[in-house]
Amino acid sequence: MKKNLLIVLMAGSLMGLASCGGNNNSAPSEADMVRQKEEAKMQAYQDSIDELERVRKEEELKAEEERIEREKTVERAKLERNFPDYTDVVIVTQRSYFHSTPTDESINQKKFLVNGDQTTVIKTKNGFGYVEFYNANRDKLTAGWLDLHDLEALEYGDY
Fold first, then answer.
1. What total of structural domains would you count in the chain?
2. Residue 7 — very low, low, confident or very high, per pLDDT cuts 50/70/90?
3. Least buried of 17, 28, 47, 157, by fewest C-beta within 10 Å?
């Protein structure tokens, strides 16, 4: 509100100054120079307001990103509590892809377990569980990190 009032007052001053002159000389009149200075001040003022708004939006975005990251960290820690070391698990999603590291970016689209496969989570980190899965049909051992969201812990009476 203050910004708009200031702009209106400055614009009114400029119009008043512009109407005082009437000189058609090729050299700028004193009124023209004053008007140009006032316009430059108004532009500088508007630029500073725009910069403050840009900085405020950046700070809000950064705070939101930090809030989301904190929530993810807490959620992962809670999830990891459900999978102590050497927990027997079953895959509960259609496919659970192996990761080379406990990060979303390290996914291997060619290696996965399917719904119903059972294995053991050896350790957890960052919302992922490290497993070694032996496929008897292919006589192959596959090791890596699985997203804990894709797993459910088995109790000894479950299998």
1. 2
2. low
3. 157
